[in-house]
Structure formats: structure tokens, C-alpha cells
Design a protein that fits this description.
Layout: H1 3-10, H2 13-28, H3 33-41, H4 46-58, H5 65-78, H6 80-96, H7 104-109, H8 111-127, H9 131-145, E1 148-149, E2 154-155, E3 160-161, E4 168-169, E5 174-175, E6 180-181, E7 186-188, E8 200-201, E9 206-207, E10 212-214, E11 218-219, E12 224-225, E13 230-231, E14 239-242, E15 247-251, H10 257-260
Parallel strand pairs: 1-4, 2-5, 3-6, 4-7, 5-8, 6-9, 7-10, 8-11, 9-12, 10-13, 12-14
Antiparallel strand pairs: 14-15
Length: 275
Amino acid sequence: MPANSVQSQQADPLWTAIRAEAWSEEERDPFLRQFLTQTILKNRRLEDALAQLLCSKLATECVNPALLRSLFDQAYGSCPTVGESIRNDLRAIRDRDPASRGFLIPFLFFKGFQALQSYRVAHWLWAHDRQLLAFHFQNRISEVFGVDIHPAAKIGSGVMMDHGTSIVIGETSVIEDDVSILHEVTLGGTGKDSGDRHPKVRRGVLIGAGSKVLGNIEIGEGAKIGAGSVVLDPVPPHCTVAGVPSRIVGRLAEKMPALEMDQQFPHRHEEGSGI
């Protein structure tokens, strides 16, 4: 193995862990040997492997993988925080999702993770005044992964999109660090309002499956939204809301429900408790 490749892996323990998992799986199931070699083991860096994987999925007849790869390389090269976000997102999945079983499986197969990383390149394009190309990315991400994220939306790191299917995130949405979002969640507007019209989701929020959060409202730090809720009003920090329309059903003892992934409702406070 070349010295620079060894040095790169030593400087990136997460990539080293992914490669180790790939070596183990290759020995266990030779059927996957070529796939794992081409996708993981022949690549020097995590970013190289991810770009290769995503470009193969997002390519079309007119926009081939080589053209897409040049865009990924530009985004990764000019914005080092993208690489940090990729790693934080992977750690979030490993820590919060019992189905992950390490880093390799979500890296290769979890479409919520892959859609989010594709969005990060689309967002970089949007920020560099390449809006039409960013919209092309948005369209392909929606077609391939079933996740529709406007490239102008602002999303932090350590974000987990569990399953990913049918997640919709509008143009002026903001999602801070360490948020967990389950499938079929919408962060949308309330109609034809223009301007700043989408939710602001603060750090540590857990949004249950099928929830619809609508309008320019703030979901306070460490809040929890129950599955299937329709949220039309701001949610105070460290509160649980549920229902259609949603209402506060309790306060949370944990500071970061997104990390715990406990979707049970807290016990309701007695009347007069302020809830």
C-alpha cells in the first residue's frame, strides 16, 4: 500500500474503520468482493469513495459520472466543512440507529445518508450561483432517493435522516446540528407566502415519522415532535408536541432527544403546571 494512502487512513480513523469492515465482509462473502473492492478498497479517501458511489447513482445519459465527479471534487476541495459533516452524519447513524451495525452499511446503502450528502454538493452549487445545476441535483436526488431537499436549505452536521423516504425540506428551512428526522417528514410552507416561510429546527430535535411542520416557525432546542403530528405553531425548547394540530403533551428530561431516539411521550404534567 502506498505510503500516502497509509498516512491518509491513519489520519482518518472513520475511513480506516470503513475499510476494515469492507475487508471483513469481503472475506465473509466473496460474492461482494468486486463491489467492495471497487467502491471502498481501491479508494484512498472517504470523500473519493463517496463521490464515486453517489455519482454512479445520480448520473444520467447527458450528465455522466465523470462530469458529476468533477463537481464533487470541487465541492470537497473548496469546502472542508463538507467532509466534517459527512463524518458527523455517519457517526450519528452509527450511534442512533440499531440497524446500522457500524459504518459500512449506512455508507453503502442508507438512502437517507446518501441523499443528505448529495444535497451538500447541491447546496455548495447554490451558494456559488449555479442555481440551475443545483436544481438538477435536487431533481435527481428526489428521483433516486425519494428525498426532496431544496438546495438553498441550510442543514447542519450530525443529522440523521432515518429511512429517508418522502422527506421534503423547503427552501428557507434551517436544520441545526444533531437533529434526527424520520421518514415522510415535511418541513414546508403554509401556502403561497414568499420569502422566509419554512421552519427553523434547532439543535437536538427529534421529528417523528410522518410529521408535517409548516410555516416560518421555530422548533426549540431539544424538542420532540410525535409521529404523524401537524405542527403549525412554534414549539418551546425541551417540550414534546403531538396531534393534529399539535399541542404540548409534556416536557422532556433529556436535553437532546435526537440522540436518544426515544419516541415515547413523557408523562403529562398536572393541570396548572404551565403546559
